[in-house]
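User: I'm new to structure prediction. If I give you an amino acid sequence, what do you actually give back? Let's try with this one:
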Amino acid sequence: MKIICTDLEGIYLPEIWIKFAEKTGIDELRLTTRDIPDYDVLMQKRLNILKENNLKLKDITDVIKTIEPLNGAIEFLDWLRSVVQVIVVSDTFIEFATPLMKKLGRPALFCHNLIVDQKGAITGYNLRQKDGKRKTVQALKGLNFDVIAIGDSYNDVSMLKEAEQGILFNPPDKVKNEFPNFPVTCGYDKLKPLLTELIKT
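Assistant: Good question. You get back a string of structure tokens that encode the predicted 3D arrangement of the chain. For your 201 residues, that looks like this:
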């Protein structure tokens, strides 16, 4: 039986931190897992910037409320869920993702959670599980699923490697060039026929 694990941002949604960077004018917040492979390094950098600029969770969630799915994402995800089981496996946080999941029709989501103090400042985060994307695929394989994984960034690579088939979707050139063994698709119109064939086999 097939099951599909996909990333969230860059696949169905714009990058939340980039949108927040655009709102605040803080260019360093534009850095994502497309730029920095080590997620803990990236998050510590973000937390330091938030603290230095006295930015709170509400400042981020106010921006998140304005975010809409990528063009064609809802239709693609609706189609995908009609033909195969889908789990969104993301390094985002439930505090960020909840309103966005509603816009996507509430697909199953595995992600992390934030540590927030009484003043609404983000002081840390809890990983659901370290290397959770790879371990999700591992667990599903242990349940006798054949896993197809879709991602776009460095933090998706272990998930793609663990899956029976990994696919890079709209990746940056440096990720695409570092991992040439994965097929690359750009646009849902190209991804859909590829998945249709993979689901059949």
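You can read the tokens as a compact description of the fold. Here is one thing that stands out. The longest helix spans residues 39-52.
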